[in-house]
């Protein structure tokens, strides 16, 4: 994970291998595949959700 605070904003980059070699513990990702993912960032949040389709 790469993270950087600059100009009042966080820049965060998450990376992982497409195949982690642990199929029972992880989802194997395929090049050009489409996957449902969710990210949550909370800071004094009252509860709001947004879901969008994501593909690599």
Oligomer: single chain
The SSE string, one letter per element, is: EE
- Rg is 15 Å
Fraction of residues in β-strands: 15-25%
Query: Which regions contain 5 or more consecutive residues with pLDDT less than 50?
Result: none
Helix tally equals: 0
Give a description of the structure.
This protein is an all-beta fold and 56 residues long. The protein has one domain. Helices cover 0% and strands 18% of the residues. The protein contains no helices and two strands. Strands 1-2 form a two-stranded antiparallel ribbon. A hairpin with a 2-residue loop joins strand 1 and strand 2. It is extended. The mean pLDDT is 81.
Q: Which descriptors would you attach to this protein?
A:
two-stranded antiparallel sheet; 56 residues; mainly beta
Q: Concise description?
A:
The protein is mostly beta strands and 56 residues long. 0% of the residues lie in helices and 18% in strands. It has strands spanning 2-6, 9-13.
List the helices and strands and how they pair.
Blueprint: E1 2-6, E2 9-13
Antiparallel strand pairs: 1-2
């Amino acid at each position: 994970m790469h993270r950087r605070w600059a100009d009042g904003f966080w820049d965060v980059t998450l990376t992982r291998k497409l195949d982690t070699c642990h199929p029972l513990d992880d989802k194997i990702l395929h090049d050009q595949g489409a996957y449902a993912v969710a990210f949550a960032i909370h800071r004094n949040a009252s509860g709001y959700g947004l879901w969008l389709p994501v593909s690599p």
